[in-house]
Amino acid sequence: MAHQAHSYHMVDPSPWPIFGAAAALLTTSGLIMWFHYSSTTLLTMGLLSMLLVMLQWWRDVVRESTFQGHHTPTVQKGLRYGMILFITSEAFFFLGFFWAFFHSSLAPTPELGGQWPPTGVKPLNPLEVPLLNTAILLASGVTVTWAHHSITEGNRKQAIHALTLTILLGFYFTALQAMEYHEASFSIADSVYGSTFFVATGFHGLHVIIGSSFLTVCLLRLIKFHFTPNHHFGFEAAAWYWHFVDIIWLFLYMSMYWWGSC
Amino acid sequence: MGERPCGPRGRSPARSPSGPAAQGRLLWAGLHPPLLWAAPRLPRATRAIRPPRPRPSAPPLPLPPPPPPEALIAAAAAMASRLLRVGAALRLLPAATARAAPARHFAAPGDLATDEEQATGLERKVMEAMNKGLDPYSMFRPKRYAGTKEDPNLVPSITDKRIVGCVCEEDNSCVIWFWLHKGEAQRCPSCGSHYKLIPHELPH
After folding, report:
1. By the CB < 8 Å criterion, does A224 face chain B?
2. Of A86, A133, A255, B15, which residue has the fewest beta carbons closer than 10 angstroms?
3. What is the DSSP secondary structure assignment for residue A258, as one 8-state letter?
């Protein structure tokens, strides 16, 4: 055991940061090769290496925390700040796309017919599938909170049920949204309407997939008894992220689906 | 006045590399050719992650009545305060000695294990020290003393000296820094408050 007089975690040397940087380089240059030269080799290598780095890095974090006990309350506090800062940065990421949407929709140009939705664009009915999606995500927020309360009470069975339900609702949302994308009468190429709509909802959908994956990992860890009623920050981080995804959807729904379709 | 040069008295204890962390550093320095890094290994003798040991004679609990609305609101408020709460560390250190820590019970079979059963490594050491009301890892604010000759500020240290920063009066922005050495109590050069070094063993 390390002989330290502080409660922080001095992490052992690890190759994942530099491998992650290499994966990012492969991915970004792979995107360029795909966009401009129709080659997907580099992109595939990049995404594959990114996946491997993520799996192994986070596997090591679980080892360091659950199995080696390095995550003292001090370390946990730092992780909490980190997750909050990360989610804040994601909020700013979406803020940009909302800005773009409002820039184009509040003062529609003559090329669009001076109206929003632009001439010829038939928007999705906000009271149909998008409303169902809203209900699904709100319900998943309830179930994830149920799971959290179950964990703090030590009730493993209920926690597993609630977290499984949350993940299933997440999958349901993704499936419905994929179907909407397929069935929509407009595409990303249909003026700035298509651009703002599909980029914003597309990134949101990606975040739903990321959040569902995070929750799935938490479910596996919950089943394997990693969490205790007082120490389960991995789950809390996943729940924060999931609530964030839900809130972004609410803003998307109100601005793009509802206001943007009138 | 109270400041003495560090000089020949100021030698940190020799730290020879030992333990997996230091071995990791050696490995990273390339001293062991076949391995490039030391991925955290699952310790061999670690407790296997398995359901908690069944406790003898745990009577089946009757279904509790539904909680009153006040309890639900209280539960919601408690959950909200978890956002930045540092788990058990919010329990005030002096108060922790007065009552048993809530984590110190054993879970029923089939429930999640408690920290008391499952915490390991430094997390466990911190938890056990906090349950005894100790703070060997300096996680909390230092205790306040009168600072007089009879009741000097006690400063724990793992060596024979430690840096002290004296905020002589509340809200002072000029912190008075000085080395506090083992032996007779020293006084802050600015406000004269007394400080005494209490050397103790490194927590293992």
Report:
1. yes
2. B15
3. I
- A-chain residues near B28 (CB < 8 A): 13
- Name the pairing type of β-strands B161-166 and B186-187: unpaired
Q: Which of residues 61-120 of B touch A (CB under 8 A)?
A: 75, 79, 82-84, 86-89, 102-103, 107-108, 110-115, 117-120
Instruction: Find, in chain A, the residue whose alpha carbon is nearest to that of B201.
Output: A5
CB A137 within 8 A of CB A171: no
| Beta strand residue intervals within chain B, DSSP E | 153-157, 161-166, 176-181, 186-187, 194-199
Q: Which residues of A touch B30 (CB under 8 A)?
A: none
Name the closest residue on chain A to residue B204, using Cα atoms.
Answer: A3
What's the one-letter identity of residue A25? L
- CATH architecture for residues A72-257: Up-down Bundle (1.20)
Please give the CATH architecture assigned to the domain spanning A1-70.
Orthogonal Bundle (1.10)
- CA A49 – CA A33 distance, rounded (Å): 17
pLDDT in tens, A204-234: 999 999 999 999 999 999 999 999 999 999 9
Q: Do A72-257 and A1-70 have the same topology in CATH?
A: no
Backbone angles phi, psi at B187, to 5 degrees: -120, 145
Q: Which of A105-119, A246-260, B40-54, B61-75 has the lowest mean pLDDT?
A: B40-54
pTM: 0.78
For residues B169 and B191, the answer to whether their CB atoms sit within 8 Å is yes
Residues in a beta bridge with B154: B196
Q: If you measure CA to CA, which chain B residue comes closest to A81?
A: B84
Domain boundaries, chain A: 1-70, 72-257
Interface test with B, best of A18, A66, A158, A230 (most B CBs within 10 A): A230
